[in-house]
Specification:
The structure holds two protein chains of two kinds.
Chain A: H1 2-9, E1 35-37, H2 40-52, H3 58-66, H4 70-79, H5 82-96, H6 117-137, H7 144-147, E2 151-153, H8 155-158, E3 163-164, E4 173-177, H9 190-195, H10 205-216, H11 235-244, H12 246-259, H13 273-277, H14 287-290, E5 296-297, E6 300-301, H15 308-314, H16 317-331, H17 340-352, H18 357-365, H19 368-371, E7 372-375, H20 381-386, H21 395-406, E8 411-412, E9 415-416, H22 446-469, H23 490-504, H24 510-526, H25 529-542, H26 544-547
Antiparallel strand pairs in A: 1-7, 2-4, 3-4, 5-6, 8-9
Helix pairs in contact in A: 2-3, 2-4, 5-6, 10-12, 11-12, 16-17, 16-18, 17-18, 21-22, 22-25, 24-25
Chain B: H1 2-10, H2 48-61, H3 66-77, E1 97-104, E2 110-124, E3 127-141, E4 147-161, E5 164-177, E6 189-200, E7 202-213, E8 216-226, E9 235-241, E10 247-252, E11 259-263, E12 266-271, H4 274-290
Antiparallel strand pairs in B: 1-2, 2-3, 3-4, 4-5, 5-6, 6-7, 7-8, 8-9, 9-10, 10-11, 11-12
Helix pairs in contact in B: 2-4
Classes of the chains: A mainly alpha, B alpha+beta.
């Protein structure tokens, strides 16, 4: 870390810097990159929202405006913030799609209270994501994500699954399954394979395809094939076709042997609690019966599921895929062949840093594609289509930032309304349910605008009522503001400027300030100061400058 | 594609990506392939004695079969009530029928889940054919509060004719009845066992698939037991699962009670489970052959 700071701060004429190891240099920037970077305050706002789901403090915005290099100190602080782990779970959820609203069994099958329906589903879906986030934030080698002999489990899961969970603890903790499943990190979690379940005629092929896509970025469904679908129903005939028809064998020659390594998760009843809850070591080699295939990894024989994580960890596509997935998360766009050089440099950096995820995050945060805030003069249309110069807050970011600012969390019947779709508004807010919607919205939508409107109104009401009326902790407003102050009062005008800076990352223009003052005055005249502040804050929270970054 | 993959794999330094110190890599025959660096343990985590004791205890509890499951299930259905669990045919002499409920009888017997038990016994000439098909996803609670859990599927076809018998059966799933039933149902079993039994003077048994509970599991790999061959000692493959997740393979050959055992590439010497396994298999065959389904 010190090394690159010296590089940034070093000046011509200074005494020669001590040699800096190559491994401490950021991946090279592209001199022909067709975009312009954000100014430091806007960059800090972007980084804070991406790493913590929260807006930066006004003091920190001022600090980086005065000293742009201070952004890196704040990155370190953000990566040490517990909010980073939650935020990382959100980012993983966008691609792993495990945070679904329901599984084949639910709280009733475990004889739990109805109030635990959503928390249980949430805990199941987050299990693999929490394990990934644990490895990432504990500075462990990323290969642990697929080789660890533990999982990260919530106490709700420990109550119903065969887990050795630390006594007296609650929430997300490192825990170990006691049902004989081999070490394999995320590959050996119930949560992953409850989401990606298989069917009696599919024989784990769907799961193998998910594994290859999620961990190697090898998407079997994207492979070009051409064939006339034969009409076959019997297992033996399907197996024969997958081996003998060239168009089938192209995928199934590697897919099926991988599927053969997943039969410890084979359920003889797809909706049975006992079957789904436990891993089944005695079935580990059942693939040789059903698929007539011994486990192998792209042609290399495996000794069974215990080999699975080791082979993923040794596959060079695993770190490359990790890099591509993180770049997609933070660049907010898909990567493609034109990103090869940038991704390869990031991958080299990742490997030079012993596959530490935090280091990879730092490198991506320094990439051109992450920091871009505008197109360069003369940028091509292609660049305009590719570069994401402004991002929109995700459903999870909207929820967390409104809570940070106002203390308001939108719940109904103890459910987080921006975290589910059975009763809530996750998809409407631009989120994904992992089944019907598999990508977050990257452009504003009508429903998202409506959700933000209601969320902003409720948040504004909570903040004004809690802070200015009831005298609660100041989360949004400065300490000097009271309902007695009026436009023209120094503290009133200063508060409005501070609010703009806090919410938008920049002070308001004179015109904007005048417009907001006029709006406040009109509402106060028609109603009162409380209503005026509530209305103004609600309007500010609907402003695109708030929900873009 | 393969050449490209090899080239990519050959370029990557994988140092520090494996925490195992075991020596056995997977030789792909491709120079520089990092998959060759995948290491595995060179010995089981459990001692051979522990592995043998675990398997012997498992054999001693009996191999899982449908009739024991049927008896336990029948002990609940025989005390059912018209509305609980509500099978279409409430004949208390029968176990077949379909139910789906969450209920308790007036005596306090609980039914939760779904049971589909299809059973038919027919006689034609001297031959009596019994067929059973089961789809289970239930929790049944007896009057003492003990819970029988069943999840899975099973089938059986048995033809008895004179002194001969021909049986084909499969039992797959998770079945437990803690403190509620003797044998393999207590403490329970996870199973994916395919078997055939033929009785015609001698008894011949073939076993395929797995049986166990958590890490204590065995798998039969083309294993046969014949009462008139090798003094009834097993022939074929038996595998014992180690807590490392890898399997110890035991090859029974040459009419010996002991089979050569290997763990991955490591020779473990002989494991002597032949007699225990033969005893268990013959008891299993006897139970499948002789059990009556009439109440």
């Amino acid at each position: 870390m010190t090394g690159w700071l010296l590089l940034v701060l070093g000046c011509p004429g200074d005494p020669p810097d001590p040699p800096v190891e190559d491994t401490q240099a950021w991946p090279a920037q592209d001199p022909d990159f067709p975009g312009e970077p954000l100014a430091a305050p806007a960059l800090l706002r972007r980084i804070s929202l991406d790493l913590r789901g929260q807006l930066p403090q006004v003091d920190d915005l001022a600090r980086v405006e005065a000293d742009p290099a201070a952004v890196d100190d704040l990155i370190d602080a953000y990566l040490a913030d517990p909010a980073w782990r939650d935020r990382l779970v959100d980012l993983f959820a966008e691609q792993w799609l495990t945070r679904v609203d329901g599984f084949n069994i639910d709280y009733t099958d475990y004889h739990l209270e109805p109030a635990l329906e959503h928390p249980l589903d949430r805990a199941i879906g987050e299990e693999p994501l929490r394990l990934l986030a644990h490895v990432a934030t504990e500075d462990l080698p990323w290969t642990d994500a697929v080789t660890a002999d533990y999982t990260v489990a919530h106490d709700l899961l420990a109550a119903v699954w065969p887990l050795d969970y630390p006594a007296g603890e609650t929430g997300w903790q490192v825990a170990r399954y006691t049902d004989g499943r081999p070490a394999g990190g995320v590959l050996m979690t119930n949560g992953l394979w409850w989401r990606y379940y298989t069917t009696p005629n599919n024989y784990n092929r769907t799961r193998a395809a998910a594994l290859a896509r999620l961990l190697l970025c090898d998407d079997y469904l994207q492979r070009p094939i051409a064939f006339e679908a034969p009409s076959i129903l019997e297992r033996e005939d399907v197996n024969a076709a997958t081996r003998e028809l060239e168009s089938c064998a192209g995928c199934h020659s590697t897919l099926d042997p991988m599927a053969s390594a997943l039969f410890g998760f084979w359920w003889f009843d797809l909706y049975d609690t006992a079957e789904m809850t436990r891993y089944h070591p005695e079935r580990e080699q059942l693939g040789q019966v059903y698929l007539e295939m011994a486990p192998s990894w792209y042609g290399v024989p495996m000794a069974g599921p215990a080999d699975l994580g080791r082979f993923v960890a040794a596959d060079s596509r695993f770190p490359a895929c990790t890099v591509a997935r993180l770049a997609t998360s933070l660049w907010r766009r898909d990567t493609d062949a034109s990103d090869f050089t940038a991704l390869k440099e990031l991958e080299d950096y990742f490997e030079d840093h012993e596959l530490r995820y935090g280091e990879l995050v730092r490198a991506v945060l320094h990439s051109d594609d992450y920091r871009v805030g505008a197109l360069s003069d003369g940028a091509t249309d292609l660049a305009a289509d590719r570069l994401v110069t402004s991002r929109i807050l995700s459903a999870e970011q909207l929820a967390s930032v409104i809570e940070q600012l106002t203390g308001f969390r939108w719940t109904w019947d103890d459910r987080d309304e921006l975290a589910n779709d059975e009763h809530g508004y996750r998809i409407l807010a631009g989120g994904l349910d992992g089944i019907d919607v598999a990508r977050p919205a990257i452009h504003p939508t009508l429903t998202r605008t409506l959700v933000i409107k209601r969320l902003g109104q409720a948040g504004a009401d909570a903040a004004v009522r809690g802070e200015l009326v009831d005298g609660g902790e100041r989360l949004l407003f400065g300490d000097a503001l009271t309902l007695d102050l009026r436009p023209g009062d120094e503290a009133f005008d200063a508060e409005l400027t501070r609010l703009h800076t806090r919410l938008f990352g920049a002070a308001p223009s004179a015109e904007r300030l005048a417009a907001d003052l006029a709006f406040w005055t009109q509402v106060a005249a028609a109603a009162d100061a409380q209503t005026a502040w509530t209305s103004l804050v609600a309007v500010l929270l609907r402003d695109p400058a708030f929900w873009t970054y | 594609m393969l050449i490209g993959l090899v080239a990519l794999l050959a370029c990557t330094d994988q140092s520090g990506t494996s925490s195992d110190s075991g020596p056995s890599g997977t030789d792909t025959g491709l120079a520089g392939n990092p998959l060759d660096d995948v290491t595995r343990p060179d010995a089981p985590e459990q001692s051979v004695d522990d592995l043998v004791a675990g398997a012997a205890a498992l054999f001693d509890r009996g191999l899982p079969e449908l009739f024991t499951l049927r008896d336990a299930y029948a002990s609940f259905l025989y005390v059912r009530e018209p509305e609980c669990p509500g099978t279409p045919d409430n004949d208390p002499e029968r176990v077949d029928g379909i139910w789906n409920n969450d209920c308790q009888t007036s005596d306090g017997v609980g039914f939760y889940g779904t049971g589909i038990w299809d059973e038919l016994e027919e006689t034609a000439g001297d031959a009596t054919t019994l067929t059973i098909d089961l789809l289970a996803s239930w929790e049944l609670t007896d009057v003492a509060g003990r819970v029988m859990v069943a999840g899975g599927e099973a089938d059986l076809t048995r033809v008895l004719e004179g002194d001969t018998a021909s049986i084909s059966t499969f039992l797959g799933g998770t079945y437990t009845y803690d403190d509620g039933w003797s044998g393999w149902l207590d403490p329970g079993v996870e199973t994916s066992l395919f078997a055939t039994v033929d009785v015609d003077g001698a008894t011949a048994i073939s076993l395929e698939g797995g049986v166990g509970w958590a890490a204590e599991a065995v798998r039969f790999n083309g294993l046969t037991v014949a009462s008139d061959t090798c003094d009834g000692l097993p022939q074929g493959g038996l595998e014992l699962r180690d807590t490392s997740g890898y399997w110890v393979q035991v090859a029974f050959a040459g009419c010996e009670p002991c089979g050569a055992a290997t763990f991955l590439d490591t020779d473990l010497g002989d494991i002597c489970l032949g007699e225990a396994l033969a005893h268990s298999a013959l008891a299993y065959a006897e139970l499948l052959t002789s059990t009556s389904v009439s109440r």
